[in-house]
Amino acid sequence: MPVELTASRTYPAGVARTFDTALSLPLPYLFAHRYAAIPPVTQVRDQGAWTTVGETRTIVLGDGGTILETLTEVERPDTFAYRLTDITGPMKLLATSVDGRFRFERAGTGVRVTWSWSVHPRGRLGRAAMPVFARMWRPYARIALERLEDVLVG
Fold first, then answer.
1. Which InterPro entries does the annotation name (predicted)?
2. Which of 20, 63, 114, 119 has its CA 20 to 30 A from that of 81?
3. What distance in Å separates the CA atoms of residue 44 and residue 82, rounded to the nearest whole number?
């Protein structure tokens, strides 16, 4: 049974611009931070335009692990989604895959961005670790959404 994690933030920016920025922002910038056991993204390999469903890229983490990311949905300017698989390194012990999604909704004169993860735990150990992982993910997500704000309004 997947574990659902969600974080949201509202920005004084347009929906389409925010969508385009979030989709194209380099992952090593957006996720440059470590939070507890969640490592930063240090590199992305084999990435194309990253605009079309089915495109893949390899995410390299600060702990040496890697993750294959596949773009699974692109509905500009409302949502984009991806699937994380082929997890290596320490994160492999926690999850078999993650389904991620960014949603963009008009909020007054700005936009509300909601980032969600549906984490598929790996076995008993992964399920047991999910409450702790969720407590780490929320501040990790908050920092990432703050970095998105820096680009949008900074």
1. Polyketide_cyclase/dehydratase (IPR019587), START-like_dom_sf (IPR023393)
2. 63
3. 15
